[in-house]
Structure formats: C-alpha cells, structure tokens
Specification:
The chain is mainly β. Helices cover about 10% and strands about 35% of the residues. Strand 1 and strand 2 form a beta hairpin. It is elongated, with a radius of gyration of 28 Å. The protein starts with 6 loop residues before the first strand and ends in an 11-residue tail after the last helix. The N terminus is likely disordered.
Length: about 210
C-alpha cells in the first residue's frame, strides 16, 4: 500500500493517505483512516526492523491558525520471539493529539508555549506541537515516531516462554528435551583465588 498521494473518499470527504491537503478541509474537519506497513513508514532503513501494520484513524480540525489531529494508532508487530524464535504478534494501541502550525521547524533552543496555542483552552491535555509548510500536512513523521516508540524492548511470545534448550536447541515450550537440566556448580568462594595466584597463599596453608 503506497504512501504516495492517493485520494480516498471517507464519509463524504476526500482525504490523502497520511498526507492531507488542506484545500479539502471542511467546517467539521476531515476524517482520516489509513492502513500502512511499518516498512512503508520507515522506508529503506526498515531492514532488520520487525514487520507490522499500522492503522491511523482520527479527525483533523482547524483551530484558528492551527490544525489539530486527534486520533489513534493501532496495529501489531510480527517478529520472532527472542527466546524460542517462533513468530509472534505484538499488538499496540496509542492515542495521539498533534497540533500543527505553519512555518519552518523551530531552531534548537526555541520552545513552543502551549498556552499560546488556539487549542489550549479547548482541550485539557497538552498536544504535541509540529510545523508544516505549504498546502498540506504530512502525518507520516509523527506516525513514524510513535511506531518506533511502541517497539518493545524484548520480543517474547509469552512472558513465561521457556525458550530453546542451549544444548540441543529443542523448543522447551512444546515438550521437555532429553538433555539434563541439572547443572552442578561448585562454590568455592574466595578459595578459587588461591589456585589462580598460588604465590599469594599463606605458607601455613601449603603442604
């Protein structure tokens, strides 16, 4: 599914997939719903990233000189489990609130004051502020960022995944393997240092 300018008709409004032409705005805003893959969002750098789909749904409304997008990102990642290597799905659902104002991106050190925003009185939660240039708003950078933040630090098919046997490689979630699970460790404490540095051992312990 391409992220190029492709028009769809949703609820009587014509909108772009994640790239919204402001010329199509109405008094009631624009309803947006689009489904993309993580590889389409990330682009050429997606090699090695988990596969997945993302559904973007919400409404873009005009508030004075700014635009507000309130909606939800939902979907799932598909990746091998880090323990047993079996395919597993990892769902996510994120509520988002983004404000867009026309102009270049602020220079480092410049801060946007939420109290000056046209939507600060209309909504109790503080939206994330972004800039746009031209006659359209591109939602892709914000969607891409939220998807990256939604990636789990560790991919597990289940919290109690038993993983693979380190000796024979069998999937221990299916059945116990024939390898011995008992490992005998001899705890010698600091006595083992004497074996490493015999010249430092007290003479009364020798012999």
């Amino acid at each position: 599914m391409s992220l190029e300018l492709r028009l769809e008709r949703l609820g009587g409004n014509v909108v772009n997939k994640l790239v919204v032409p402001l010329s199509h705005m109405t008094d009631k805003g624009l309803t947006i719903r689009a489904e993309v893959t993580t590889s389409e969002l990330i682009g050429p750098d997606s090699a090695g990233e988990p596969a997945g789909t993302v559904t973007v749904s919400g409404t873009l409304t005009e508030l004075g000189d700014e635009y507000l997008f309130r909606g939800e990102l939902s979907g799932s990642f598909v990746s091998p489990c880090d323990r047993c290597l079996q395919p597993a799905a990892f769902p996510f659902r994120i509520e988002v609130c983004w404000t867009y104002a026309e102009g270049p991106e602020p220079e480092p050190g410049d801060e946007w004051n939420a109290e000056d925003s046209a939507d600060s009185d209309a909504f109790g939660d503080e939206p994330s502020f972004h800039r746009y240039c031209g006659a359209e708003i591109d939602l892709r950078p914000e969607v891409r960022e939220e998807v990256a933040l939604a990636l789990p630090a560790k991919f597990l098919c289940a919290t109690d995944c038993a993983g693979l046997c380190p000796k024979c490689g069998a999937n221990l979630n299916l059945a116990p393997c024939q390898c011995s699970n008992e490992v005998t460790l001899e705890n010698k404490g600091l006595a083992g240092l004497g074996d490493l540095f015999p010249e430092l051992r007290p003479k009364d312990l020798e012999g």
